[in-house]
Amino acid sequence: MATPSPGVFDRLDWPVHTDRLTLRPARAADADAVWQYRRLESVAQWITELPADPGAFRARFTAPGRLATSLMVERDGSIIGDLMVRVEDGWAQTEVADTARAVHAELGWVFDPTHHGDGYATEAVRELLRLCFTELGLRRITALCFADNEPSWRLMERIGLRRESHTVRDSLHRSGRWLDSLGYALLAEEWNTRA
């Protein structure tokens, strides 16, 4: 089982700027802004946890493990989305396990739907890939989604991730339906040939 590495963002210089966006580590004070879009049904239908109320969401959002893996995406000083980077150990045989520590990451993202269609998610996640491969020195990233979440897997394909799996009705959705899932990945050497 992979072991998350909290505090990985501590070795980077923040904030990071793209042409239109600012990325920075999450702070406890961001919880209310993030709640505003994560509570929307069009967003919540695809995320792991449906926030029950602002207080419950704030408690979960401000947990140390959560803050340690979250980045905020800002446009003109306003939060428009959040990113997850969960750095993990790669699977390895015992004799070489030390070499596989903190070399992989699972990525995730959620954006305020009022900012969909302007390329902000593409811009933010491309920068996240750059950070993962050049600044953090990771060798592999992965991203997962429900197959029905077409905007998410289209984003994965747009930024160059490779589809590695399509699992059939393996994920129970809160609607009570078993849904297909998609898994995407990218290796550092693949990213380097495209960058």
TrEMBL record:
Which InterPro entries does the UniProt record give?
Answer: Acyl_CoA_acyltransferase, GNAT_dom, N-acetyltransferase
Keywords linked to the UniProt accession: Transferase
N-acetyltransferase domain location is 21-189
Protein name as catalogued: N-acetyltransferase
Organism name = Jiangella asiatica
For this UniProt entry, the molecular function terms from Gene Ontology, in alphabetical order, are: acyltransferase activity, transferring groups other than amino-acyl groups
The record's listing under Pfam families reads: Acetyltransf_3 (PF13302)
Q: Which residues cross the membrane?
A: none
Sorted alphabetically, which SUPFAM superfamilies does this protein's record hold? Acyl-CoA N-acyltransferases (Nat)
